[in-house]
Amino acid sequence: MNLEHIQRKIYEIRGFKVILDFDLAEWYGIETKQLKRAVRRNIERFEGEDFMFELTNNEADTLSRCQFGTLNSGRGSNIKYRPFAFTELGVSMLSSVLNSKIAIDTNRKIMRAFVAIRQYILNYSELKHELDNFMRETNARLDKSDINFEAIFKLLDELISHKKELEKPRNPIGFRTSANS
Description:
The chain has 181 residues and is an alpha+beta fold. It is built from 7 helices and 4 strands. It has a domain of 119 residues. A hairpin with a 2-residue loop joins strand 1 and strand 2.
């Protein structure tokens, strides 16, 4: 399990960056019901949405649907029970509840993924702040009729968002044969 794989499993739900219980259970090498049982036995450690919360039926249904609004195909690919969503604090608290070598190693990797995402967000906001300052200073010095910096920066923002769309991992298309599975 590498950092990129973990980062793809971090979702934003209710304004929190979270990892769902079934992904955590898979990484810890246990069943989801075992993870949930351990959390329920130690629920006082997870009080507050900043540690963990259970998804609503609507949120869980949204995760079970593909882009066309139909259920995903295949056994076990749809959510039967509402999952728990663990924030960074909740994942770190799990290491005290699930005290195994695999849990500790996995938690280290997950914490690194959360830190990498936070660092990326900070770097992006710092760059945006510097660009905004540059734009203000430049517009103050130059006549707007000469160069329209607002249009240039708007175009740069569009290019950045377009680049992010292109960098998203894509699902392979085509049929699977026994030779390439």
